[in-house]
Design goal:
Elements lengths: L2 E5 L2 E4 L4 E8 L7 E8 L6 E7 L5 E3 L7 E6 L4 E6 L8 E9 L5 E3 L3 E6 L1
Parallel strand pairs: 2-11
Antiparallel strand pairs: 1-3, 3-8, 4-5, 4-9, 5-6, 7-8, 9-10, 9-11
């Protein structure tokens, strides 16, 4: 059974930093998978934040976070990270990590971790 455990959220002042983690279990290898981070603020649709391909670590970012957020992965422990810096109040949201095979199919989700940025 595939499980994603996302963590690392918290309360931070504007301009501060946080690192989110997404630990994946239940798969022998993630070579053919993609991890995405999404976020959802109250009364707003869930939006894409960043993605990383496990096989070559290539990444894609939403324009709103480009230059401030960095996504990475650690093959040794099947954990993906989202380093967030220069945080803004508009980054406040529940952040979810997600996993999907490059060929499509079921998408797996973490339970979410709350990031709150105060002004």
């Amino acid at each position: 059974q595939v499980e994603l455990a996302d963590s690392g959220g918290g309360l931070v002042q504007a301009g501060g930093s946080l690192r989110l983690s997404c630990a994946v279990s239940g798969l022998a290898t993630l070579r053919s998978y993609i991890t995405d981070w999404f976020r959802q603020a109250p009364e707003v649709e869930r939006e894409f934040v960043a993605k990383i391909y496990w096989n070559n670590a290539s990444s894609v970012y939403a324009d709103s976070v480009k230059g401030r957020f960095t996504i990475s992965r650690d093959n040794a422990d099947n954990t993906a990270y989202l380093e967030m810096s220069n945080l803004k109040p508009e980054d406040t949201a529940m952040y979810y990590c997600s996993l999907i095979h490059k060929g499509g199919g079921a998408r797996y989700w973490g339970k979410g971790t709350l990031v709150t940025v105060s002004s």
